[in-house]
Structures are given as C-alpha cells and as structure tokens.
Write a structure and sequence with these properties.
This protein has 218 residues and is mainly beta. It has a single domain (26-217), classed as Beta Barrel (Porin), CATH 2.40.160. Helix content is 3%, strand content 57%. Strands 1, 2, 3, 4, 5, 6, 7, 8, 9 and 10 form a ten-stranded antiparallel sheet that branches. A hairpin with a 4-residue loop joins strand 8 (156-169) and strand 9 (174-184). The longest helix is centred in the first third of the chain and has 6 residues, at 2-7. The radius of gyration is 22 Å and the shape is elongated.
Length: 218
C-alpha cells in the first residue's frame, strides 16, 4: 500500500499547459562590484555593507518544449546598502565617508528555464536570462550630489541572471524554491558634477551583484 502511494504523481498534466501563472516571494542580498580608476591624488578604498532585502512578484511561463520554457517574472525588490569611502575617514566631517543607499526596484526578468525530465514529484531546472531594473530610489534627477550628501544612481539598469532550482509537485500546486545570481551589465553610478569628486571620480564601474532566494507557487 505504501509503495503504491509513493508512486502517485501529483498534478500529472501540469506541464502540458502552454501557459501558466504563479507568484513568488523571496529574499535577496545585493552589494556592488567596484572597479577603480587610477587616481593621481589618492588611493581609492571603498567598501560595501549590504543587508538582506525582500522580493515579491508574479510569474507567467510559456512552454516552448517539454524541457524548455520562457518566464516573465515582474516584481518589486527592496534592499539597502552602506557605501563606506575609507579613503575619506580622515575628513573633518565623518559623515563624508558614509552613504546609506536604500533602494526599491521594479525588477523585470525574462529568463529561460531548462528542466530535466520529471522524476515522480520533483523536477530540477536551470535558469538563465536578462532583466531590467527601474530604480525608484535612484536620485538621478536630483540636482544635489555628494557635495550635499546625496549619492546618486542611474534609474534604468540591465542585469543578467543565472540560477538553479527544483519543482516540487504538491497535491494542489507546484512549489519551486530557487537560487540565482544577478549581475549588472551597465555602470549604475551617477557621477558628481565635479569631475575630480573624491566620492565618484575614483570609480570606473559600480554595478549590482546579488543573490536571490525565491519561493514560487504555481
């Protein structure tokens, strides 16, 4: 009797659907990848302190092949980071060396999902694709810059994503935990008006890199 129960497949026709929908909840931790420019004035030294954030969104999946599908996953992502300009710690104003960045994004990934064949009620998969981020907290249009303690980022940004997960077929729905890395394609920093700014002039590239842990319900 127990052996027969173990062989029962939940949602046996779920993967025959051409299109299906769902939603996800999850956590993220983002920091920045930094590349410096050579500075004749000082040696740049910048560190990032990230905190855990939250993400929530919707899923629309189009089946292209029995092992391949295309997913659109628009959602909201929130997180915060502290940027510490260690080379400015000797400044007469200690606040000059710290910038708090709280961010809320519209995050729109378009990813391919490569799945194995289903084994009973599980199905591992890989993810790869690109995403667009609209940064609601970018400050890009702010006329003030770091000289007025305003750190600015670009509003429109693009990422690439890679990850893995597993589909678990339950009695009423499919549960899919996944983990993915998110990496910026473009430089996200908005440079200060002063080309010799002690905050932004040393930075050649500043782009998001993060880890997302999502729990999808489909």
């Amino acid at each position: 009797m127990f052996a027969q129960r173990d062989r029962v497949e939940n949602l046996p026709t779920f993967d025959n659907r051409k299109i299906h929908y769902g939603f996800y909840l999850g956590f993220n931790q983002n920091d920045f990848k930094l590349n410096y420019q050579n500075s004749p004035i000082f040696e740049p030294n910048i560190s990032i302190e990230p905190t855990a954030g939250f993400n929530v969104g919707l899923i629309a999946e189009l089946r292209l092949h029995k092992n391949l599908s295309l997913r659109l996953e628009p959602g909201l992502v929130s997180n915060s980071k502290r940027v510490i300009f260690n080379h400015l710690n000797t400044s007469s104003n200690p606040l000059d060396s710290i910038r708090e960045i709280g961010s809320t994004y519209l995050h729109v990934p378009l990813v391919f999902k490569f799945s194995t064949d289903r084994y009973k009620n599980i199905r591992p998969y890989l993810l790869a694709g690109i995403s667009y981020d609209y940064n609601f907290s970018s400050n890009e249009a702010n006329q003030d810059d770091n000289s007025a303690a305003q750190f600015r980022m670009k509003t429109h940004n693009f990422m690439y994503e890679v990850g893995m997960g597993i589909d678990i077929y339950l009695y009423f729905f499919k549960f899919s935990p996944s983990i993915r890395g998110v990496f910026a394609i473009n430089n996200e920093i908005k440079y200060d008006d002063d080309p010799n700014s002690k905050w932004t002039a040393p930075i050649n590239f500043m782009g998001t890199r993060g880890v997302f842990l999502n729990f999808a319900f489909e």
